[in-house]
Amino acid sequence: MKIKYMFIAGCLLLTSACSDFLDHPLTTSVSDDNIGEIIQKNPAKLGEFLGSAYRSLGSIMLYGRQTEYMSTMSHEMDIDWLGEEQRNQWAINGLTSSNKNVEEAYIKYYKALASANLMLDLIDHVDLEALDEEKKTMVMNFQGESLFLRAFIHFDLLRLFGEQGPSFGGMYPNNKDAKGIILMEGIADASNAITARSTIEECYQLIIKDLKKAETCIGDNQIPVNTAVPGPGYTDTDYTKDQGWAQKPAVHALLGKVYLYMSDYANAKTEFEKVIGDSRFKLDKPVNFTDYIQHTDNNPECIFSLQYYLSSGSAYDDAPQHHLVRIFGGAPGAWNNFFVDQRTAARFGDDPRLYEATLYDYTWQAWSTATTGITFIKADTDVPDYRYYARKYTDFYNVSSPVFSTKNVDIIRLADIYLMYAEVMLKLNSVDVGTEYVNKVRRRAWGESNYDVPGTKGEDFSTVTMEILQEERYKELFFENIRWYDICRWGILEQELAKYPSTKAGTVHYDPQDYYLPIPESELRTNPLMKQSKGY
């Protein structure tokens, strides 16, 4: 224990901006007995450990780049650069256990999990009753956020690596006894470093337990809205650097989503209605192509977003900028490794969200400067090998480094909640309610001034079916790292892949094990209790 807390104390010193945080010299014994006392001198510094968990999620190994490789498996995107076999595997739905991208993401998720568990361990050593009310509330909020993050990370890992699909009778509860993931409820040490995979059922029970406990202690604040109006010379500041993390609405939203994945529609309905009934949240204005911007970061639609902002540091590692534009966008200096699949425009049809999600039909002629905005010209979509790119994360006013975007990555937003709620209501045979919530999202997309009343532009559906809802989620949430998970939980992977028989990387393959990712070879080598998933 002394070694563990000597390391923690050293980290606290290294991250502290002032010497009064820790007046214990590092030669002093640091143990279970006094680590709480050390932290209580300045519990606000715990936030820096919490920040490291968020930064890990936002890194280029996860939401800052590599988790969006899932968009090539769902065929929202196609691959243009064929120089790495590991990337080509995503594009043909042919992942192997030696794929380095999979290994890097797996390791990074567990590093983020370790940060959340470290926070919870440290908080367990704090005497909350010895703190004044303000500091007690702050520490309890840290605890709630850490529990939320642990549940969120476990849920992501379970959706990626847990056995599911036709080989296991479909989704939960049919696959409840199948292999899930390694659950980490505490700091790894000699007693738990080598651990077997828990069942799907056990994984869900821990995720729910953590979220329910998080609800009792996390704050109930809303992210401050960025009121700055982007224009020439605008740069994204760090106004959310130390705020804008998960709060109680995010707990309800994620808990509802977990229940939906478990086919527990009654509980999902209850949790979603807590978010829908919160007057602080509403659908944001529609984005017109001529705005040259996307939805403002932390607008009233955002429930949980990973925060990115302009920084002088490197855009690699866990920096607060992401690579989504460099890899998937069309900005100056972008690598453009991936482009929007050519079949996307036909699938959208006349839906205006095509122009919010992509740069279809246009290309930039001159990028913005400190004094002038960007200019676009029409593109010839009929030329051979026409390319167009994702638009959602592009900051058209980013002059200094347009490929290292500071646009936030929205993880949960209200439109997603509306569409999941609609799905739940369809499952509960309340078709009228489900139809109305799909239509609310469509009315916003068509630019209606009030999305709560019937549309005036012919966009309303009279009756929504599951097939219609599935397409609505495709169009509304395009390239938001959601489509792949939707396809898998609906059990429609084989049908979806049939629509995309080939990509630039080759023929697309379907096998039942495509519903989940392989456990990396490195994990199999180092953990004798780890068992590979069926089919790999």
UniProtKB/TrEMBL annotation:
Sequence similarity: Belongs to the SusD family.
Places the protein is found: Cell outer membrane
Organism of origin: Bacteroides vicugnae
N-terminal signal peptide: 1-22
Lineage of the organism: Bacteria, Pseudomonadati, Bacteroidota, Bacteroidia, Bacteroidales
Domain RagB/SusD: 349-536
UniProt superkingdom: Bacteria
Coiled-coil stretches noted in the UniProt entry, renumbered to this chain: none
Residues annotated as domain SusD-like N-terminal: 41-222
Keywords on record: Cell outer membrane, Membrane, Signal
Protein known as: RagB/SusD family nutrient uptake outer membrane protein
Pfam families xrefs: SusD-like_3, SusD_RagB
Cell division found in the keyword field: no
InterPro entries, alphabetized: SusD-like_N, SusD_RagB_dom, TPR-like_helical_dom_sf
Keyword Iron included in the entry's annotation: no
Record-linked PROSITE patterns: PROKAR_LIPOPROTEIN
